[in-house]
């Protein structure tokens, strides 16, 4: 079987990585806002359909033209840029305010997808060739999209397959949350000048800086510096993501318990955000000294990405606290810097390594990661808040306990 190979230079390879982030840059705010207005079901469904089909077309695009490949990666970015910002609007319709951390933690099940995909892709490449990676992952994503449209609804009232008793239970739990949609007059100036919003955006960007370096560049480091083969590389690269999801779920459960015990939301968010940023910084300081050691490197990568799971009850859930009505818009706004961060990390690694992969050059990268984590945590500690902001609409609260759902 003939498997095509392409002689792209380092700049072209990094442009392929970067084209995804340029697409990702355009849709977070739009995706969050449209999900607030029209619902997460249709908006995320269409976005995932675009990402799935673009992934399936990637091998064909590679064979036809380099710029077609950039286009397919750009379209994948467009679709996935909607993914995270569309989640908070659904949470406000299904989840009690005291349970938002644990709900958001389960969105990090995407880490399990990475944990499964990396080793599977290693074997697919080894035995079926690299195009099979895009056919398998694109096919799975397409199947997921079809299941999404069948299983998911925006509100309990619209869901045809849950009982009235279940609908009543959900309604009671979110009785103090209004679902009025603000279709105009968004207080953009107040949002973009809000210190808590900037705190979320900066913490998110600093966390993503580390995440994208590990996600996109770790396989290269493990191959070029540590000399792992492609199967070992895929398996070991997957381990950090399992830890990330486990930590996200456990820490989110603890965070919601702490809030119910009387700890302020602000305190809880700041504590877990600090854990999510300081942990990786400490691990990468170790890596800067002993990163040539295989065993140490594996532990560092597992620990650094695992600790990022503490972000789930930290800044990751914070937009729901400060503005339930505009949570999707804020989440999308905070995703915009991530697109630039993702692109810049690929350029940074290419500039520092300069096509010469050795440990001394990677030490500079590790120390940059250390500094980014500490700076992000300090800014968040100073400016973050867990309280509803004054510019969040003060709509009338709906006491659903007093009126059965079936009578509304």
Q: How would you describe this protein?
A:
With 408 residues, the protein is mainly α. The chain has one domain: Growth Hormone, Chain: A (Up-down Bundle). It has 18 helices and no strands. The radius of gyration is 22 Å and the shape is globular. It starts with 9 loop residues before the first helix and ends in a 25-residue tail after the last helix. Residues 396-408 have low confidence and may be disordered.
What's the layout of helices and strands?
Blueprint: H1 10-26, H2 28-38, H3 40-56, H4 58-64, H5 66-80, H6 87-94, H7 100-106, H8 110-128, H9 131-151, H10 164-173, H11 188-192, H12 195-224, H13 230-260, H14 265-290, H15 294-307, H16 318-322, H17 327-353, H18 359-383
Helix pairs in contact: 1-5, 1-17, 2-3, 2-17, 3-5, 3-9, 4-5, 7-13, 8-9, 8-13, 12-13, 12-14, 12-17, 12-18, 13-14, 13-15, 14-15, 14-18, 17-18
Helix content: over 70%
How far the N terminus sits from the C terminus, by CA atoms, comes to 63 Å
Q: Low-confidence spans: pLDDT under 50, at least 5 residues?
A: 396-408
CATH class designation? Mainly Alpha
The average pLDDT is 84
Count of distinct strands: 0
Q: How would you sum up the global shape?
A: globular
Element order, helices and strands?
HHHHHHHHHHHHHHHHHH
- Beta-strand content: under 5%
| Helical stretch tally | 18
Overall structural class, as computed from helix and strand content, comes to mainly alpha
Overall tally of domains: 1
Main pleated sheet: none
Membrane topology: Multi-pass membrane protein
GO molecular function, one term: symporter activity
Domain Major facilitator superfamily (MFS) profile: 1-388
InterPro entries: MFS (IPR011701), MFS_dom (IPR020846), MFS_Na/Anion_cotransporter (IPR050382), MFS_trans_sf (IPR036259)
């Amino acid at each position: 079987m003939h498997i095509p190979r392409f002689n792209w230079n380092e700049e072209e390879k990094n442009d392929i990585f970067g084209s995804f982030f340029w697409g990702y840059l355009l849709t977070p705010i739009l995706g969050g806002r449209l999900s607030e207005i029209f619902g997460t079901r249709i908006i995320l469904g269409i976005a995932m359909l675009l990402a799935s089909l673009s992934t399936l077309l990637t091998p064909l695009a590679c064979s036809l033209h380099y710029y077609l490949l950039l286009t397919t990666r750009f379209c994948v970015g467009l679709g996935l840029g909607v993914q995270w910002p569309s989640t908070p609007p659904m949470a406000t319709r299904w989840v009690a305010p005291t349970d938002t951390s644990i709900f958001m933690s389960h969105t990090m099940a995407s880490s399990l997808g990475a944990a499964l995909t990396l080793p599977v892709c290693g074997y697919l490449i080894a035995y079926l060739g690299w195009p099979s990676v895009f056919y398998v992952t694109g096919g799975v994503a397409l199947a997921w999209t079809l299941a999404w449209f069948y299983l998911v609804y925006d509100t309990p009232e619209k869901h045809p397959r849950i009982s009235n008793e279940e609908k009543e239970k959900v309604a009671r739990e979110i009785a103090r949350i209004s679902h009025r949609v603000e279709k105009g007059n968004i207080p953009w100036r107040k949002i973009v000048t809000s210190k808590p919003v900037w705190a979320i955006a900066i913490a998110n960007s600093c966390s993503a800086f580390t995440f994208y370096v590990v996600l996109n560049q770790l396989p290269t480091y493990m191959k070029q510096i540590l000399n792992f083969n492609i199967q070992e590389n895929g398996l070991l690269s997957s381990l950090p993501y399992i830890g990330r999801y486990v930590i996200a779920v456990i820490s989110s459960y603890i965070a919601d318990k702490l809030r119910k015990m009387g700890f302020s939301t602000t305190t809880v968010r700041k504590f877990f955000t600090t854990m999510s940023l300081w942990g990786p910084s400490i691990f990468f300081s170790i890596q800067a000294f002993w990163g040539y050691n295989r065993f140490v490197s594996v532990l560092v990568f597992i620990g650094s990405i695992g600790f990022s799971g503490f972000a789930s009850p930290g800044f990751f859930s914070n937009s729901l606290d400060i503005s339930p009505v505009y949570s999707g818009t804020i989440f999308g706004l905070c995703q915009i810097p991530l697109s630039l961060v993702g692109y810049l990390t690929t350029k940074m690694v290419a500039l520092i390594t300069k096509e010469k992969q050795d440990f001394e050059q990677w030490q500079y990268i590790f120390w940059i990661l250390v500094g980014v984590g500490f700076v992000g945590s300090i800014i968040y500690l100073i400016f973050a808040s867990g309280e509803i902001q004054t510019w969040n609409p003060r709509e009338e609260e709906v006491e659903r306990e007093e009126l059965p759902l079936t009578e509304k």
